Fold these 3 entries.
Entry 1:
Amino acid sequence: MQLSTKARYATRAMIELALEFGTNPLQLKEIARRQDISEKYLEQVLLPLRTRGFIYTLKGSKGGYCLAVTPQDVTLYDIIQTVEGSIAPVHCVENKEICARIDKCAMRNYWSRLKDKITEELQKTTLADLAQEQKEKEGEVGEKLDYQI
């Protein structure tokens, strides 16, 4: 199972915003430059996070993107679920009607347990945790790094 580029980029952008939390807004072009992401694509990636209320924008010359909630109040699950939708490894876990074998299939139970474990793990990690880890990584190397999941 692999996460999409959209989920990885959303997480990296949110870490950038968490690192700047409580200071100045970050312009889209600055986030894109720091993370080596196309501005046009990054704007699309950030839209669902904005719609969900995790981030907001300020207009004007000193405007940009800001976190709308504290980094401690956003989990990795929140970010990934917002941009990906369901994290179920197979469709029948979320929608029983798509499979005629649902009552006879031992694998559905396994996939459901796997989804629960992934959800549990993603919910343990906050944006504050990731920002702190990013600061530590930058300190070890002495420069800003791209954060990949």
Note: The radius of gyration is 17 Å.
Entry 2:
Amino acid sequence: MIDLTTGLAITSEDIVRALGSEPPSFIKDKDNKVEFAFGFPNMMYTLWGYVCTYRSFPSQSAFVGYYHLVHEEALKEYDKTAVSARLLRSYPSLAREIHFFQLVKESNAFNDVSYCSYDDVEGGIDFKVMMGGNTYNILCYVETPRALLFRKKKDFRHMNSILNAIEMPLNLTKGKKIGNWIVYDEAQVDLLLNKVINYAWVHYKQHPLELLSS
């Protein structure tokens, strides 16, 4: 697999600046043809396409504009406003996930932190951390009815249970605010570290001091 993050000088602060450059914008329009489209161009792949092309993280409006540009042919049969509405709703979770990945990576709390877009899109694994010789699969989502429903659909779609899965739900009332955006913060990185340490103790009998000194 290609690690899209290799060589990209994107930091968590770059993502924060992109989010803070404009307030969230949403459109109420919904079209079932768009919402349940089979083979709809993948948003996460497209977001990483922007990052790799422009070597920067897009604002919400830049992401929507780029998506329409690169998928113009594939989107001809769909209502443009309805497509934009779906993209605008999805952007916060996409940005939040990548920001948390970067935040965890920058913390140096783990032996390794890695991201693979294929594992994310096809396997439901948002990113991975390694500690004490074991790899842990991190699952991020927010605690809203829509997000929890999406998480259930994602789990059902991938069917196979994810080994060494560490769930990281985010209560939007407790996240870090950037204007009207909400992202994970350093406290969530600490929580992730504690969850991994507890998991390693229960499942691998690895003592916390052994992990922290590795």
Note: Residues 12-212 form one domain.
Entry 3:
Amino acid sequence: MDETPRQTMDRVNVRLAALLEEARRALRGERDFDVRDVRRLREPVREMAPLVAQAAELKRLQPEIAGVLDQYKAQLRDLQTTLLQVRIMLQARQASLLAKRNHHTSVSRWVSALSMTR
């Protein structure tokens, strides 16, 4: 049985809220955030695209759907902010790993130089 647009929106909003919380948990350091998370976030957005394209018509035919669409838009705004924060966190982690790698390289060269002088 096919879902109504309202059922799809409700389901997607619940799913998006859960994924948004997972991203926030990653920001708090409670879990990792990786490419699988990005792919999982992409799915509900892709699923909603045709409904968002029809939003004006859907609101006209079913005015009660406006609140569900507003909830979706609010979650997208939150997601945009959260993903920006995740991006910054990942860039900071990358910079930290690069600094550690450079340190290890320097130590390795120092040890090599020291062993040549003995």
Note: The chain has a mean pLDDT of 93.
